[in-house]
Amino acid sequence: MKKVHKSAMFAALAGTTAAVVALSISAGTASSENLAEPGPLVAGAAKVDLAAGKITRPSEEYFPTQQEHEAIFNAHTLAIANCAERNGIAYHYGEIIPETETDRDYGLWVPAAAKQAGYAPVESEEKKQAVAETLSGESDVEISDADFAKLEQNCANDPDVLRLTEHKGSGPWSEGLGNAWTAFQSSDVYNTIRNEWAKCLSGNGIDAASDTRTLDAAVPRDAYLTSSAATRDVAIVDANCKQSIDMIQRLADLHAAYEAPVLDEWSSELSALHDKYEQQVADAEAYLAKNGH
């Protein structure tokens, strides 16, 4: 008898990871002697939505949004659950709990989020409960070796499961975007903006993190797990300092400038990937609707 978390069972069947898997931009390994050159710096190239806590650079428009990732994930897991039921294996399908966290590409920056949770994640009570159940093992499911083998044999290649398995977001553009991230963080303009923010923090008696790649105030590591009054106070000053110098828009636009040559080089391939994602999102939404979700 196997005891596995539901998401692990799905991953074993079809190679799916949790909600956001599009692409990692932080894996650049370019040497300082061979950093990417930016395209033109365009003010407003990135969309920064303070109310929603969202940052969208042009590179991200080729990939699904968080809500679209969740739709694909839900449809994919529902397809597995339906296949399991057809094979006489009981499984109760439950939709993924929507993500409420703000984007933190350039550190904590939304004052409302800072006031609510400091540097800790902003989560709904439903999400907190689900995380607690996952950590405690309460949400694990028991499945016999025979049933697990049956799922692998009969559901891994089920047509609905396959077409609703999220497309791979990495490709020949990934290395370029990683190098763009490294070059962006190594640029003089980045350091100038960061120094302005660090000066604002210092004026409030707060230190910036010592690592220049980190865009948060210097706080204990556990501040990212658990909120406290002290770290919330620091976080509020931090977010307000970022707002006072328009830091997020400036960094997002600069980052977009470094990514622009990569997008130009791989525009055809990225456009084709976008079309595939668009079709898959439509398929996922139709599948959920057809099944009453």
What keyword list fits this structure?
mainly alpha; disordered N terminus; 293 residues; single chain; two-stranded antiparallel sheet; 11 helices
Per DSSP, the total helix count is: 11
Shape: globular
Biggest sheet, spatial arrangement of strands: 1-4
Largest sheet: 2 strands, antiparallel
Low-confidence stretches: 1-33
* Helix and strand sequence: EHEEHHHEHHHHHHH
Average pLDDT, rounded to a whole number, is 87
Strand content: under 5%
Helix-strand makeup class: mainly alpha
Rg from Cα: 22 Å
Number of E-state strands = 4
What is the number of domains?
1
Please give the share of residues in helix: 40-55%
Q: Distance between termini?
A: 31 Å
SSE order and pairing:
Blueprint: E1 2-5, H1 6-14, E2 47-49, E3 54-56, H2 66-86, H3 111-117, H4 125-136, E4 140-143, H5 145-155, H6 159-163, H7 174-186, H8 188-203, H9 229-244, H10 247-265, H11 267-290
Antiparallel strand pairs: 1-4, 2-3
Structure notes:
- By secondary structure, this protein is mainly α.
- It has one domain (2-290).
- Helices cover 52% and strands 5% of the residues.
- The chain contains 11 helices and 4 strands; from the N terminus they run βαββαααβααααααα.
- It has helices at residues 6-14, 66-86, 111-117, 125-136, 145-155, 159-163, 174-186, 188-203, 229-244, 247-265, 267-290; strands spanning 2-5, 47-49, 54-56, 140-143.
- The strands form 2 sheets. The protein has a two-stranded antiparallel sheet. A two-stranded antiparallel ribbon has the order 2-3.
- β2 (47-49) and β3 form a beta hairpin.
- α2 crosses α11 (267-290), α7 (174-186) packs antiparallel against α10 and α8 runs antiparallel to α10.
- The chain is globular, with a radius of gyration of 22 Å.
- The two termini are 31 Å apart.
- The model is unreliable at 1-33 (pLDDT under 50).
